[in-house]
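Minutes, project check-in
Item: structure for the 264-residue chain
Input as provided by the requester:
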Amino acid sequence: MRGVVGNESILDTDLVDHLMGNQNTIRKGLTEIQNGQNKSQSNKSFRRPKMSVEGVSCDPSEKRDGLQENLILTDESGVRALKKITVFAAAAFMASTIGGVAQADTKMKCGCFDSTKNIKAVETAASNAGYKAECVSGELWTNYENSLSVQEKNVKVYMEGGQKIIGDKDVKFRFRPRNGKCLDNVVDGVKKNVNWVGPMCDNGKYEDLSGFQLTRPEKDKAPTIYMASYQAQVSGPNEYKGFALYEKADDDKKYLMALCLQNK
């Protein structure tokens, strides 16, 4: 199989496999360097305007915010050498997955604005985009000032409170690898291009990325719904899709409905 952008083939499978093999070899070398460094340093000491989705209003109910952190510190030495290889892997990943339509059984776990009508609207909008979304009870929220995060075993996506209400046409996300993995690349699901190339292997650090384009989902009938989507690849390789859903209110600003990450 070949990765395809438009009608042009960009990478053969054999080449991608070769590049990914080199990527794993270099990552192994970085781990060995880090182990040596660790040994040598061991002795050093508001209120939301009324909105409607397909005829239903979304109003606040109760506040429930919660964040968890599991930090594993690693090193990022040798990143430049690996970037040259990872950019090809990212291009292949983008071509092979971003162009396809999401399957209806692609499950998403979401941190949603806490109202019954909003949760229903999130499920509907996600379904129209080809996803099955679940608003996780522990990640429901009503405070637009607090940050928000959703995590899976190998990656965590985070959104600052300032991104919950926006007037811009693009969105900022923060990504952090988990479970000893490296964040290899992140693709913009709307622009269909590589937003960032790593690797970033520090499990205690976030990568702040901007410029993820907001757009109206093609099949969504609600004229006020907007989505920004991404695909993050961590070492393994493990690929995670995700998105943020917004609703445009009568004050012409867009209010976050949900932040979602593929549930694996």
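Outcome recorded: The CA atoms of residues 26 and 58 lie 49 Å apart.
No further action items on this chain.
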